[in-house]
Specification:
Helices cover 3% and strands 48% of the residues. By secondary structure, the chain is mainly beta. The longest helix is centred in the C-terminal third of the chain and has 4 residues, at 105-108.
Length: 128
């Protein structure tokens, strides 16, 4: 069993920054592949970023590439999403999710249906 708790969301003006955190607990939390997804009202859950278990591989949606950075600190069992140059269209509930360490991650990291555990989400609102 893995528990995920997100924090760091809030209200920010366009062009501003936020850093989201996802604290993981459980027996194998430091060896999990992790992803960030977001969901705006009335829309599908979209992939944002993913990172493999040791932090050596990272992936981003085109819409956030160059603005967002995913990272992890396995000593703290925490994954981060640094969000810079925020835009109103980034407004959504942001979720972190975990996925078992397996080779398939490197091809299906953006498929939210293949993640095993999810946090409760944190709201990010970007005003124009």
């Amino acid at each position: 069993q893995v528990q995920l708790v997100e924090s760091g969301g809030g209200l920010v003006q366009a062009g501003g920054s936020l850093r989201l955190s996802c604290a993981a607990s459980g027996r194998t939390s430091s060896t999990l592949n992790m992803g960030w997804f977001r969901q705006a009202p009335g829309k599908e859950r979209d992939f944002v970023a993913a990172i493999n278990w040791n932090g050596h591989s990272t992936y981003y949606a085109d819409s956030v590439k160059g603005r967002f950075t995913i990272s992890r600190d396995n000593a703290k069992n925490t994954v981060y999403l640094q969000m810079n140059s925020l835009k109103p269209e980034d407004t959504a509930v942001y979720y972190c999710a975990s996925k078992r360490k397996n080779p398939e991650f490197y091809s299906d990291y953006s498929d939210y249906t293949l993640y095993d555990y999810w946090g409760q989400g944190t709201q990010v609102t970007v005003s124009s």
